[in-house]
## 1
Amino acid sequence: MIKRAQKLDVLLSKEQLDQRCQQLGTQISEDYRGEELHVIAVLKGSFMFLADLVRQIDLDVSIDFLGLSSYGSRRETSGVVRMTSDLALPIEGRHVLVVEDIIDSGLTMNYLLENLKTRRPASIAICTLLNKGTNRHIDVPIEYVGFDIDDEFVIGYGLDDAEFSRHLPYIGVVRQESET
Ligand code: PRP
């Protein structure tokens, strides 16, 4: 039994997530028609979204991973982005699509974009499953957004609560203790 899941309200169901991945995959396939696409997934949070999204992309796709962390076990950004693992492959001359689970303050994505630009890709675009625009510190250009969400603490489908609950197949909102 998963005790932590009992304190959640479902914000986005598996069916909603599946449907949006299909729509995004179709849109990306049309936008990059005739090109090869190099997908970079930002670990850890994006792993489940990545797996569902790339299965909906009808292009020649290569995939690489990069680890970034700025929250640790806290619910507020530390403001310091840490690279926990670098890419394995060069991106020079490639059309890069960065896949994220959530963009909140924008600090992580801003850091990543500045870093990736120095590696001279042909193009960079961003796809995020969730866009929490209420707390944006730095503006970042986002080409593909799954869902715009309010300022709530969301977990599941890759997103964690102190490293737990990433495996849930839906996105949940943590209920306040007084509501339980
Ligand atoms: C989360 C998420 C993004 C970042 C977004 O990562 O995956 O990378 O925060 O927040 P921001 O826009 O305020 O910078 P986190 O540091 O929690 O690491 P994780 O993906 O390993 O959970």
Note: The first strand starts at residue 8 and ends at 12.
## 2
Amino acid sequence: MVGRHSTNARGYWFVDRANGVVPSAVHVGATPVGRGPLWCAAGPCALESFDDAVATGLAVRQQGAHALRIGIFKPRTSPYNFQGKQGPGVKLLPELKAVVGLPVVTEVLDPRDVGLVAEAADCLQVGTRNMTNQALLKELGGAGRPVLLKRGYRTPVEEWLRAAEFVVAHGNPAVILCARGISSFDSSLRFMPDLGAVLAARERTDLPVVFDPSHSAGRVDAVARVALAAAAFGVDGLLVEAHVAPERMYQPGDGRQAYDPAKISGLMAACTEVRDVAAGL
Ligand code: PEP
Ligand code: MN
């Protein structure tokens, strides 16, 4: 597919909604994401204790989440922080999936790990720090798994769409766009919720658009509020960090933003309602 449309001025063709090529719903496991019921992937920032991952996974499943999110390769801002369980962690995924009974969304950092992670996970996440890693994006074109592509926290929407184009042009149309907040001069929240980007992406492409309120909020008491705001902007789903016992999470980590799994069902119901109300106003 590569090269056919290389002269396009925007830098993307396949993902352009005008061309009607990409799907408006992408399946993660058996569940379609896009233009339907609000999808929710929830779970721990990182796989740390296997027992806590199981307990959190079972709790979010019981609450109606459709997928378990969990980090195994962690893109930390310091080399001295826990980098995830990495290869040995990937080997734990089949058992985790079998016990929890949900499809798994997990990040892949290195193009060399795409095959390994694709064998064990149902959806491959590209983190905000890797959105412009073209070697990774190209490799994901052949992964045979849907890709959840986070927006770079300093990148314009058009570049995000070009990143999606890399995956699609290399053979994989199953891309879910995930907004997760952007850098700003103001640090009241960890990252400024990029709500306008949801509308902009919607206008330009049919690909599903979801939102990660956890990394945007950066604090647990703002997660639901950011999720509701994203719902008002019509997102197809949410990616929520949740943990049964945030106090047990390694520090420094994302313990401050870990949502109570027992509240996921209420959050999904409220977001669905807000999304419907906003669509009618
Ligand atoms: C994550 O989902 O745990 C993560 C690291 O997200 P981001 O790439 O958006 O910071
Ligand atoms: Mn995290």
Note: The longest strand covers residues 39-43.
## 3
Amino acid sequence: MKLLVCGGAGFIGSNFVRIRVRDHGDDVVVLDKLTYAGRRENLHDLTDEIRFVHGAIEDPVAVADAIAGVDAVVNFAAETHVDRSISEPDAFVRTNAQGTYVLLEAAREAGVRYLQVSTDEVYGSIEEGSFTEESPLKPSSPYSATKLGADLLVQSYFHTYGLETLICRGSNNYGPYQYPEKLIPLMVLNALHGDKLPVYGDGMQVRNWLYVEDFGRGIGHALAHGAAGEVYNVGGPDECPNLEVVQRIVGLTGNDQSLIEYVTDRPGHDRRYSLASEKLRALGWTAQVRFAEGLDQTVAWYRDNAWWWEPIRSGDYLAYYERQYGRALGSA
Ligand code: NAD
Ligand code: DAU
């Protein structure tokens, strides 16, 4: 297959590109704006095997260049951090909603299959049980609202124009190459440096953890075997409260639990996410990596790959950290 992977220089996109090139021999074009979260280093071992186009998904000229001759489009490109969507929602509307519209138009013009990478956050929070693809849609944050806006546009292109669309809604991913604004890499890097570990609220919010390669395989599976117009949930095998995640990281890095610090909660914080993934499992996909094993591997990856995160923990990241947490990284 020849694939256009938008946002392929980000965390999940780069892991997906690696799976497609290495395990499937696909020909891949990556279109990426290289925001703070997108980095060529995430594709460092694949530079000779892919075509890279530096551009934004909301730019029709860049999209027209990148889409030429492909069989399908997989869209990962997005602004993805909930905390940033609360403080600066503007880019979320532009990229997540307008950008998806531009891509859909280009896919319609080219007549190619289109897979939108979406999130469990479009369903909102659930106290008990798990969301199915039929559950009501109740996003809480500007991030999840713009992701739902994109999902609805995607479905409208199936119903109105007959574009072959698919939507994969993933639960919380973790693994190599994740920007350290998200819970697991932030806590791992802080723990490796002996910095405080800022837990929001009481830390009893629950997330449904999915190893990034399992999500990549799930997306590939839906692309190959899914029915046009359908939504597929892609959930992880294990749920865990945030506090327990952080306690496990403290243990895996040989630190003291006193590094944990309770800080002001995120506004509108969803309490629990949980996905039922029977629909995709019925097509033959299953998550292979349990949380305990994946977390162990992830901590080891960050410990062994300082070349990747050292340049990040400087400049803009330090300024972001101080704005978000109200004090400089390493100051306590
Ligand atoms: P990320 O922030 O690591 O990467 C996003 C990528 O998109 C970056 O490479 C960035 O440069 C690129 N990008 C941003 N704006 C762009 C634009 N306007 N044009 C082109 N490229 C642009 O995000 P991620 O965690 O890898 O998430 C990828 C996708 O998966 C997103 O759509 C996200 O909503 C979805 N998702 C993420 C998770 C998760 O736990 N991280 C779970 C479910 C779904
Ligand atoms: O559920 C899928 C979603 O998972 C994706 O769609 C999003 O793109 C991705 O960012 C992620 O969203 P979350 O808000 O769940 O992830 P985050 O890593 O920001 O936070 C995970 C949990 O940890 C959440 O309950 C907030 C909490 N947290 C996070 C940070 C960064 C803390 O307690 N302290 C922190 O410093």
Note: The chain has two domains: 2-173+210-234, 174-207+238-268+292-325.
## 4
Amino acid sequence: MKLKKILSVILVVSMLFSMASCTANTEQKPENNNDIDTVFTPGTYEGEAEGFHGIIKAKVTVSETEITDITVEHTETAGLGDKAIDKIVLQIKENTSLDAPIVSGATYSSNGIIAAITAALKEAGADIDALKAKTIADNNKTEDVEKTADVIVIGGGGAGLAAAVSAHQNGASVMVIEKMPQVGGNTIISGAAYNAADQGRQSLLPMTDLEKQTVEDLIDAEQSDSEVKEWQETLKKEWEEYLDSGKTHLFDSPTLHKLQTYNGGDKLGDTKLVSILADNSLPAVEWLEDLGMKFTDHVFTVLGGLWSRAHKPEKPLGTGYIETYMDYIDKNSSEIELMLETKANSFIVENGAVTGVNAESNGAKVTLHANKGVVLASGGFGANVEMREQYNTLWPSLKDIKTTNHTGATGDGITMSQELNASIVGMEQIQLLPMGDPVTGSLSGNIEQGVQNRIFVNKEGNRFVDEGARRDVMTKALMEQTDSSMWVILDKHSYPTSDTKNNFNESIDSLVEAGRAFKADTLEELAKQIGVDADNLVKAVETFNETVDGKTKDAFGRTLFADKIDTAPFYAGARVPTVHHTMGGVEINENSQVLDVNGQIIKGLYAAGEVTGGIHGSNRLGGNALADITVFGRIAGESAALGK
Ligand code: ADP
């Protein structure tokens, strides 16, 4: 005991000396000094800090001079935040340095893990400045490379990976390049809802009178496009068959999906593409299932989705899609190569056809030749503020609005295609959601569990919109409220237990604990916690409940209802407008071939996903993006492999 005390006194004294000398030396020595003797008090120390999805906890074990072990507890996004954490932990541990660079696209997770380890090291008595000044060598420098594959895919998000798998299934060797250090793009951090008319799963849901009315209104609505009129005729027949059958479950069909998609985009979408999307979305679900992807049996109405046809993956966020594709790619790695941190800059064009891609990786030149075709799947430009400002004509300035997008959504593919004279359509159509986290703009922390069981109230505690409406309608209404801010209000129906999780794998209790959601036994108490007028909130909920009971018509024209909000505990979560999806992009035909400004096919170039334009018109239905990227990713991969 005595010896231990003496030893620790010696250690502390020597530590003080060396810390003092470090501090003194830092001033004289050049900034990046790797010769500093970092001294710790041996032991295991804990530190924690805020990540993207909550608290990151680090347990750091140190000897006198080295970090010997780091274990971490966190709930960061699988495939993205967790990859960043692993990379940073390894660098910090191997180098006993805090100079680990932030992983691109995972800034919050990177900062969180560095801060958590820093906190633990402070407890260990470390000189933090000295550890930060100790540089980690960049071992990433690569040589120039030149490679050839049948199909080159630009972008490793949902559309690109679907295209890669599909191209391979159609006999091609494939090279996928992804500019970020990890695959996934916006897909992996999305809510992941996937729309497909699926009468099997929908047989579990009732059909309300208001929903019946919606179908009949769609059949009778005035339409001018001849193809859309045909859809109405088909829907009429399908509807009559359904009524004759005496079924009572929720009706749906690809035709209803088409009409809602087309009308929901103000009739601006390309009818051919809308048709392909709706007709192929269920077959693409089955294709994903054949690849090993699992969806729950329950379909729901996602925000702005207008109908209960959203399929929910069993795995959180978009991780299920990306893992499914990556499993396939891993199993076929001799024929599908993936190059991370490899950014496409331009197309190689020979005799008027696209035959490859000029790219770069860590400063090295990467030249890729395609025997058959190039698939552009580089996503949208939601994270590119300059491009948003350049094209936005429909919203007030979007300069200061945050985004749900990952940092790589910068519209590179659109700019690259313009150099080829590609037709670019609908660029002004930028989708905002009323569902951004007030701090980060991300979708995480969103407490809604589907459209039917929650209301929105403004800072005064009043409802202000049909919460089942289109996304643009809800966001415009939100922008007119005080501070463009609202509360999502719901009850136990959405969270039967306190550890029930939202779509982002966050339990309601963890959100409450982190101050990102509020919980109370009465609406009055909830109103007090969130600072809204209690009388207004109680009245808003009471009126809503009367409408659920069918006693009154909804003042905002809402048609989607399930349960009343009447069972404690009650919950509230704050939300603000956020940039979500860019509907504009390169124009494609039914084979996903890119068209030029004269409507001619650009040989060798295919595109799929958010980089394309023209499908969703002025407003994309919630749940249609995953269907779009899967359906057209699959088509683009097949077309490129078969040289269509
Ligand atoms: P989609 O839903 O259309 O698949 P995502 O955002 O999910 O769109 O994926 C697009 C992917 O393309 C992202 O991972 C992004 O980092 C990647 N990407 C964007 N620009 C480039 C580029 N110039 N080179 C390589 N990859 C890119």
Note: Residues 353 and 603 are 5 Å apart (CA to CA).
